[in-house]
Hints:
This protein is α/β, with parallel strands linked by helices. It folds into three domains: 13-64, 434 Repressor (Amino-terminal Domain) (Orthogonal Bundle); 70-173 and 310-338, Response regulator (Rossmann fold, 3-Layer(aba) Sandwich); 175-307, 3-Layer(aba) Sandwich (Rossmann fold), CATH 3.40.50.2300. Helix content is 45%, strand content 18%. It contains 13 helices and twelve strands. The chain has a six-stranded parallel sheet with strand order 2-1-3-4-5-11, sandwiched between helices. Strands 7-6-8-9-10-12 form a six-stranded mixed sheet, with helices on both faces. α3 packs antiparallel against α4 and α8 packs across α9. The longest helix is centred in the middle third of the chain and has 17 residues, at 207-223. The radius of gyration is 25 Å and the shape is elongated. Mean pLDDT is 89; it is low at 1-7.
Amino acid sequence: MSSNSGSDTGPLMTDIAETAHVSLATVDRVLNRRKGVKARTVQRVLDAALQLGYMSEAEHERLSRPRPPNVVFLLPMGGNPYLRLFGEKVRALARTTSRDDAQVRCYFIESFDAGALASAIRHHAGWADGIAFMAIDHPLVREATQEVAAAGRRVVTIISDLPLPGRDAFVGLDNQAVGRTAGYLLGRFCRAEAGSVALVAGSRNYRAHAEREMGFLGLLEENHPRLKVVGMREGHDDRDENYRLATSLIEQNEDLVGIYNVGGSSDGIARALREKGVAGKIIFIGHGLTADTRKLLIDGTMDAVINSDPDAMLSSTLRIFDDLQRGAALQANAPVKMDIIFRENIPLA
Length: 349
């Protein structure tokens, strides 16, 4: 802005409003890059401000560019350390962005509750240009997604997809490949050629978990037919529930040789392995490099962690919303690199 903007000797916002034939509130919205003003009105206000000397040519050019999007992230509430870490990174970004960056907000929604997620999608569509969320594959969520997309909101699913014409893109891993990778690692690490293998998931309502299960089972059937899968248990990413499930699996299957945690809260499973004296003996593979899984890798309770960098996830998601805001072409899926972390290659914290 010019140095005399808003002073007694220079043009005022009221002058801009009069010249552009708009309200003072509209001028305020344009100069502060808020949504809800038509493009031609924005340009008329900016041209009036430049003509009156309220702003410089450089400021006029900057504000004439497409407004950065308002983006809301909706994540499941609960004890999943990876999702908490991702949410912390979103909120940290929200505290540091300038008005020329995407304006970001993050909310945690009741986990595994399709109705709560659908309500949140509709509610936050009032402020947001773009909504990013970990999708629950449920009719309520699909209907809400289609509804806000029809109203012009951009929708990106993260971590777990919801393939619909209404959503613009998915940012996350190829989850069937993830499951096959987990099966490959577990099968190769097992010292025994035969035995029982268990899976623990958050919920099959997350397509990501169902796809990981499918890939895991397919790989074992192809390459390790003597490893018997004793069933998928849903622990809802709760450490206490995961502890009880793992304890039961260990007690009921004397030949248990491996556990794959498809979801989060691996510390609950680790607690059961330690208490039963089988930590380091039963192969344990899980997801998300966080403070708890880092410790479990170091002490040998976990053998491998499959990870997607949360910073890369966040930047990729925001880049998609920025491209959509500018009308740029984009791919329906944004591949995220799969990292496989062992004790010997843990990145520095």
